[in-house]
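Reviewer 2 asked us to include a model.

Predict the structure of this chain.
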Amino acid sequence: MSTTTTTQKTVVEAQNYELETVAGGTLVFEPVTEYRETLGRATQIGRRLVGVVGVNDWDAIRSELARRGHGAGLVHQLEEFDGMEVRR
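Predicted model (structure tokens):
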């Protein structure tokens, strides 16, 4: 059991952010991983929008979120990262 916990912590610490440049700035995604016993390793199963970086037009970011099916209010819940935090 402790081996599984150690593996999961390593995966979380090793994850990188995925960046996607859009009108108005850059969206920051966190990869979602899941351990697969059949593969013997963690694999990425998706990604979760966690923030933005380098925003120069909040209205454009809001429009991009709406285009992707998110509510306009999500713009107030996203973390605004510094470029160094996401290795940009």
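The chain has one domain: 2-81. The first strand starts at residue 18 and ends at 22. We have added this to the supplementary material.
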